[in-house]
Amino acid sequence: MSKEASNGDHNSAAKAPPTPSPLRFSKFFQSNMRILITGGAGFIGSHLVDRLMENEKNEVIVADNYFTGSKDNLKKWIGHPRFELIRHDVTEPLLVEVDQIYHLACPASPIFYKYNPVKTIKTNVIGTLNMLGLAKRVGARILLTSTSEVYGDPLIHPQNESYWGNVNPIGVRSCYDEGKRVAETLMFDYHRQHGIEIRIARIFNTYGPRMNIDDGRVVSNFIAQAIRNEPLTVQAPGTQTRSFCYVSDMVDGLIRLMEGENTGPINIGNPGEFTMIELAETVKELINPEVKIISVENTPDDPRQRKPDITKAKELLGWEPKIKLRDGLPLMEEDFRQRLGVPRKN
Ligand SMILES: NC(=O)c1ccc[n+]([C@@H]2O[C@H](COP(=O)([O-])OP(=O)(O)OC[C@H]3O[C@@H](n4cnc5c(N)ncnc54)[C@H](O)[C@@H]3O)[C@@H](O)[C@H]2O)c1
Ligand SMILES: O=c1ccn([C@@H]2O[C@H](COP(=O)(O)OP(=O)(O)O[C@H]3OC[C@@H](O)[C@H](O)[C@H]3O)[C@@H](O)[C@H]2O)c(=O)[nH]1
């Protein structure tokens, strides 16, 4: 039987997980951990690759369709004997022999996930089914990167994992938030029905170097705008809040969750909460005191507040974020300046 504990009132696995590869128990081979990262060419995925490749026992395989990701994010690993990059869409089955699966593949920025909503749902539902099927066949442990968006426009604050959320099932964001909710359901059904070892992270807004410059999310928008001396576009009313986690903290949390004994879901995010006006003012102060801040129209169903309760992450994973927003923003500025070719004026 799996020793893993579920989180809260979920039923633990009734069945033992499928048998892992004999290689894991071989006395004669270096029993490397083979790790698949779907969406590994994206923002969080490529930082996760960097961290996992630091361990010489890990072999890393990335499967990505490059919709929002890029080979450029992985260029330092291409050609490395422990690294493999596959152009693959997770809506199609994938046959690889692996011990762990970090399943990240899914566009994360609202402008990209709304661009082709049917494809976003297919990625979340069929993509997750395919990865669970793979986990079942090879006996791999699988981690899903779910999202704070499963809480929708939350009616409790801060959000803890036992909150079921307030999601519009027919809105323009539903392809993503309902898609992730179904993905979580599939994870738990495979766990209960087939004994698959699962892990679910509910990620809150994450930022850092390598975000697409035209990604459309708020931190990357404000930093690019400040560097280009364009007005910072605060979407009305500007009093809506978010909590921003630096990417190295996020990767640390994801690895702890994968290596630990709890299925989750577990919130991983930074509880520091800011209104979008406060974020714009902080970016202005740190990056370009001359820049203007303007109010622009918002999009439908924008959640009004968001802040993680990370009690479970602290207790069960021994994890909490280390990097404050004021320290993380300049690290991201450096990367954006280099890519935009705009050095800082002294
Ligand atoms: N960054 C955040 O604030 C945040 C918050 C909550 C959850 N998440 C989740 O974390 C994961 C990574 O997010 P990110 O910020 O790195 O986004 P990202 O857009 O940079 O990365 C997503 C990656 O998935 C790939 N992809 C998309 N659809 C695919 C498909 N059908 N098949 C194969 N690959 C596909 C993209 O090309 C990209 O490389 C996503 O699952 C996202 O939902 C992110
Ligand atoms: O230029 C901008 C962009 C965005 N915003 C505002 O900033 C806030 C955050 O918007 P973002 O697009 O960065 O991200 P959201 O919080 O809406 O969604 C994100 O949250 C959780 C993840 O799963 C996803 O990565 C993403 O969907 C929203 O209130 C939005 O209205 C601006 O004020 N100006």
TrEMBL record:
Pathway: Nucleotide-sugar biosynthesis; UDP-alpha-D-xylose biosynthesis; UDP-alpha-D-xylose from UDP-alpha-D-glucuronate: step 1/1. Its cofactor is NAD(+). One of its GO terms (biological process) is UDP-D-xylose biosynthetic process. InterPro entries: NAD(P)-bd_dom, NAD(P)-bd_dom_sf, UXS-like. It is an enzyme of class 4 (lyase). Residues 36-330 form the NAD(P)-binding domain. Its EC number is 4.1.1.35. One of its GO terms (molecular function) is NAD+ binding. It is found in: Cytoplasm. GO terms for cellular component: cytoplasm. It catalyses: UDP-alpha-D-glucuronate + H(+) = UDP-alpha-D-xylose + CO2. It holds the Pfam family GDP_Man_Dehyd. Keywords: Cytoplasm, Decarboxylase, Lyase, NAD. Belongs to the NAD(P)-dependent epimerase/dehydratase family. UDP-glucuronic acid decarboxylase subfamily. Catalyzes the NAD-dependent decarboxylation of UDP-glucuronic acid to UDP-xylose. Necessary for the biosynthesis of the core tetrasaccharide in glycosaminoglycan biosynthesis. This is UDP-glucuronate decarboxylase. It comes from Populus alba.
